[in-house]
Amino acid sequence: xxxxxxxxxxxxxxxSLLTRGSLSMEQFPFLEARFPVVRLxxxxxxxxxxxxxxxxxxxxxxxxxxxxxNGNCNSRTRIPPALLRTEGDFIEAIKLNPANRFExxxxxxxxxxxxxxxxxxxxxxxxxxxxxxxxxxxxxxxREILCTFCDEPDxxxxxxxxxxxxxxxxxxxxxxxxxxxxxxxxxxxxxxENPLLRWLVPSLNQSFLEERVRISFALARLAxxxxxxxxxxxxxxxxxxxxxxxxQPYHAxxxxxxxxxxxxxxxxxxxxxxxxxxxxxxxxxxxLLFEAAVHFLVNEAFKNGAGNIFVPPLTRGPHPQPVVLRSxxxxxxxxxxxxxxxxxxxxxxxMADPKIEDPSYYLGDDVTYRIxxxxxxxxxxxxxxxxxxxxxxxxxxxxxxxxTRLVVACAQGSxxxxxxx
Length: 421
Ligand SMILES: [Zn+2]
Prior knowledge:
disordered N terminus; binds zinc ion; 17 helices; two-stranded antiparallel sheet
């Protein structure tokens, strides 16, 4: 048994398993190529003067245009790229959470654990039983780097940013300004929301996700060009995370349930801020429950090994052609949006838990809730509903799998997706 599993419960984060499953049938030799771990402080001087300055300038202009378009003031301060020496400098330059630090780890593989490993619902990043520390110079395969760091944007880097005036992101358009929900505007894009809802709540139109994808791929390209392959694949994994997020229906649709009834309630309430305050748990509970359910199910399937029900949809989805990034994003959101209503009602019918629809209850605060108990029970009690729900999840995952394979192939070939970024 791996030393990371000694506490008796382990679960991988979902992006890691989506990436592992999506690439499981791929025979690309480059996925097994191995590259040494390089600390960020050693990466920065290796790329200084080789394009980092231009990338940062371009990225800051990109953010300025977005923030000005949103009508917020531009109070951003810029760090001369020549002064980028430390991890803190880099975090400031990319406008990430200054309290966050980069971890040097790899995620354990299914072969490294026992099959009876029980479920850990925490979904926390490293350190944790799913991760093993790595050291400078230690070699990791491209597959390991991708499977590890495609979860990294969920480890805190995009949280607590709206209260940092010098970053200039402006006020949080939705979610909170601190904590987990504050990363939402960087991880969701409601591009196909109901037009009336968009008019009633214009802040839902705001998203920084595309800028996050673009800077991730631009840095990846720079790293590859400078022979810094570890960081090239780590930044590719970041971009992959944001794109995979868009295949999740609750990241693509703000209100996937009772749309017209809910919209008329918002319109009648008049004050959206007050309405959102009173009803935010209705949406948050479903979003969290869906992620907890998929997290549990994909972990269970990977721990069981043979007969993993999620590998076929992840590996056999349609192959999107390389297109400009904006089209890729729009297509991903469109597909997820089209599934959102059926996934949402399928989830509610399957779980049949009145608590989830109680606006005074917040699943995120309920430490007693055990998805590894409620979901197997729901599967036993309502097998037909479970089958219907899984069929819809498979449709979402086929999109995630196709995107993953496309991004990884483009990263290797420096093709159109990256040129556009
Ligand atoms: Zn995310």
